Amino acid sequence: MPIHVHTHDTAGTGVATQLACAEAGADIIDCCIDSMSGATSQPSLGALVNALHGTDLDTGINPNQLARFGSCLLPVDLVAPACSLLIDTH
User: Fold this and answer.
1) Which domain covers residue 48, as residue numbers?
2) Domain count of the chain?
């Protein structure tokens, strides 16, 4: 049976918790795009992707592409240039 871990980052330890769960063999760990993560939300996807990058648990997600995507979730007046770059490259 797959192990799916869901937690929140209320105490600021969510990233460490999810990393420990991944290392212990969890099949799925919940996380949230950086601009919406932390506190009562889930741990940061960017932090997890970067922490696991180049390890046996590498997610295969390109950290640079992820950072660009996260900027699309900022207030509307800051979004247009970043999102148009992301859309134009795909």
Assistant:
1) 4-88
2) 1
